[in-house]
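Researcher: Please translate sequence to structure tokens.
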Amino acid sequence: ETPANLGQAFKNHMSEMFAFHATMMSNTLGTSIVVFTRTGFMAILLSHYRPSGTIFAFTNEKRIQQRLALYQGICPIYMQFSDDAEHTFANSLALLQKQGMVKEGEHVALVQSGRQPIWRFQSTHNIQVRKV
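Model: Translation complete:
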């Protein structure tokens, strides 16, 4: 007999695996992590794996920004998200560069993940390496 919460357990396991591998990739490449979150869930998971670079967690919720400030390695940043993912990515990287948190030519690991995706209707997991 399968457990009643098997679907939820699988989703949590996928998120854990994704956070682990995103951290490993970031550590191997020597990059910071840029994550976009409404709930803070993925940023917190990433924090548990203690990546060597900073986790820049962009959120459009003030209360989530405040909550994320309590976790090791997370630099929470409030920003309104655009309806277009690419526009939001460009704005976030420009903001980080303007504030001196990343330098031109530096690489960052861009993480999109979650059960409540921002730009899609389904759960999504995506890691990209972008040059600032």
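Researcher: Any highlights?
Model: Residues 6-29 form the longest helix (24 residues).
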